[in-house]
Specification:
There is one protein chain. This protein is of the alpha/beta class and 164 residues long. It has a domain of 114 residues: Rossmann fold, CATH 3.40.50.300. Helices cover 56% and strands 15% of the residues. It is built from eight helices and three strands. The protein has a three-stranded parallel beta sheet with strand order 1-2-3, with helices on both faces. Helix 4 links the parallel strand 1 and strand 2. The longest helix is centred in the middle third of the chain and has 20 residues. The chain is globular and about 45 Å long.
Length: 164
């Protein structure tokens, strides 16, 4: 929308503007879901954030992207937001029947240890369908494995936020 274009331009000029706007609203916790690209919106969200959840598909190319993202987080922490921290890494699109998913999970846990959430989001048709209906997974298929996984993830995230 035109409003988003205006916000993007403002974030290019003032990457901390999103954080200021959110503070003015008085929310205790705000979740920002931004694209994985290094756009002004993503940088603005990182400048405003206290913590980051990094989703990683259970595929080898996704492993390569994690190192680049962590480097970006370090850069944002240095230049814009010293309080930014990695809350955790979330394994998504996991298919436990495949050796590939198992190997990616093992590599992530070996390298990042406790930073990897215990919750693993399975590859799930209902998860893929939900956005096409304009609904969350909790609305679309509340008893599906994907919905259960995201509820467990929410509990883990809350626990890590409370740990400070």
């Amino acid at each position: 929308t035109p409003e988003l274009v205006g916000a993007t331009v403002e974030l290019l000029e003032r990457p901390w503007a999103l954080g200021e706007a959110l503070r003015d609203e008085g929310y205790e916790i705000t979740l920002l879901d931004v694209p994985p690209s290094l756009s002004a919106l993503t940088v603005g969200a990182l400048a405003a954030a206290h913590g980051v959840v990094v989703p990683v598909q259970a595929e080898y190319y996704a492993l390569e992207g994690v190192a680049g993202l962590l480097s970006t987080l370090d850069e944002v922490r240095t230049r814009l937001n010293p309080r930014l921290r990695l809350l955790g890494i979330l394994i998504t699109m996991y298919d436990g029947r495949t050796l590939l998913s198992q190997q990616v999970e093992a590599q992530l846990r070996a390298h990042f240890g406790e930073k990897v959430f215990w919750t693993v989001v399975p590859r799930n048709v209902r998860l893929a369908e939900a956005p096409s209906f304009g609904r969350t997974i909790a609305q679309h298929a509340p008893t599906s494995p994907g919905a259960h996984a995201y509820r467990r993830l929410a509990e883990e995230v809350i626990a890590r936020v409370q740990e400070g």
